[in-house]
């Protein structure tokens, strides 16, 4: 075999070194920047919109900045030189014909430095068959401390709703065009939406109204109100606006409430935030059809002190989190989620600075098989959260909070398993 010439070896070495050395400064800077671009189309007239203003809102940790641009002769727009910073998220919007078209919680990263967002102006669907409620959850709680002891309770509703169409959904409500309207039981008081900018109550029709179109994919809605027990019954029945896959009731064990409808199975007993809840889940073999009236009444035995509900330690923020988590999972891992109770402090949908106490006490009581089930459930829920975030179906702040909670508790679980193996 002939020996390789020295000059050839030197050439190979030079090539190898050139691949290993850092890139020149201009290229490195370009690699750390991304862009958001897209096209604005008038679907009703089937034409590209020229000179249409598009706004980019940059949400940083402490500040919010905005940029504007207009579409060119091809209906295209572009925002460039944007940092690939996962702590920064963007909102892209445009207004046409009095309607605001918005894409929220856009994040640029090294794996997705260039994102395309097209706006289809005037492109909507009003086909209610494209809308499906995956999970409708109710949490029953005591009334506010200053409320009269007249049989009132706090009701928290959380709805995981899915638009199966590729177009935003809108419908008519009287003379108005709205995203959707949801029927509430008559007699609600103190309606409080969890997303105040998107939901409001029409006191005449007693319906919760989403003013903006319902985007494709999954959306989570929620609200809280006061309701009253009448004739030993808390009747939350209503006519369904959309097909609904399942209903869930979370009832404090200390209150003798139980759904009267036979499509609710026997409850499971869950400890959540230091309180014991009976969780009733509908077991109907198929979805509840739109247009039907569903029996959501709870029979009540108020006991000797009629009209007074036992006190509880759970606050409203925790109860809202329970309902939102139930709607978020849509029945997926609901039992596992609450068995791995999250005892964080008062939380709402935009809070991400709470810390959670350790699960060590109750983990010690589990067998090795049970610990393995808990570990798998936590991993599956974390994977579910990651998938939601990747599809941009959950905000960055909510994602970070829930994922941090589950990761911390998974670490606690693994440490407990390690101690068990070393024992």
Derived from helix and strand composition plus strand pairing, the structural class reads: alpha+beta
The total tally of domains equals 3
The second-level CATH architecture of the largest domain is Sandwich
CATH class division of the largest domain:
Mainly Beta
* Strand residues, percent: 35-45%
Radius of gyration: 26 Å
Query: Could you list the spans in which at least 5 consecutive residues all have pLDDT below 50?
Result: 6-30, 303-308, 330-363
The mean pLDDT is 77
Tally of DSSP β-strands: 27
Shape: globular
Alpha-carbon distance between the two ends: 62 Å
- Specify the number of helices: 7
**CATH fold description of the largest domain:** Immunoglobulin-like
* Helix percentage: 10-25%
Can you summarize the main beta sheet? 8 strands, mixed
Question: What attributes characterize this protein structure?
Answer:
423 residues, alpha+beta, 3 domains, 5-stranded mixed sheet, globular
Task: Explain what the structure shows.
With 423 residues, this protein is α+β, with helices and mostly antiparallel strands. It has three domains: 26-121, Immunoglobulin-like (Sandwich); 128-331, Immunoglobulin-like (Sandwich), CATH 2.60.40; 340-423, no CATH class. It has helices at residues 6-20, 25-31, 316-329, 334-339, 360-363, 368-390, 396-422, and strands at residues 33-42, 47-48, 53-59, 64-70, 76-83, 89-96, 99-106, 114-116, 119-121, 131-141, 152-163, 171-173, 176-178, 180-183, 189-193, 199-202, 207-210, 217-228, 233-235, 238-239, 243-244, 247-252, 256-259, 268-272, 275-281, 293-294, 297-301. The strands form seven sheets. Strands 10, 11, 15, 18, 21, 22, 24 and 25 form an eight-stranded mixed β-sheet that branches. Strands 1, 2, 5, 8 and 9 form a five-stranded mixed β-sheet that branches. A four-stranded antiparallel β-sheet has the order 4-3-6-7, with no helix packed on it. It is globular and about 70 Å long.
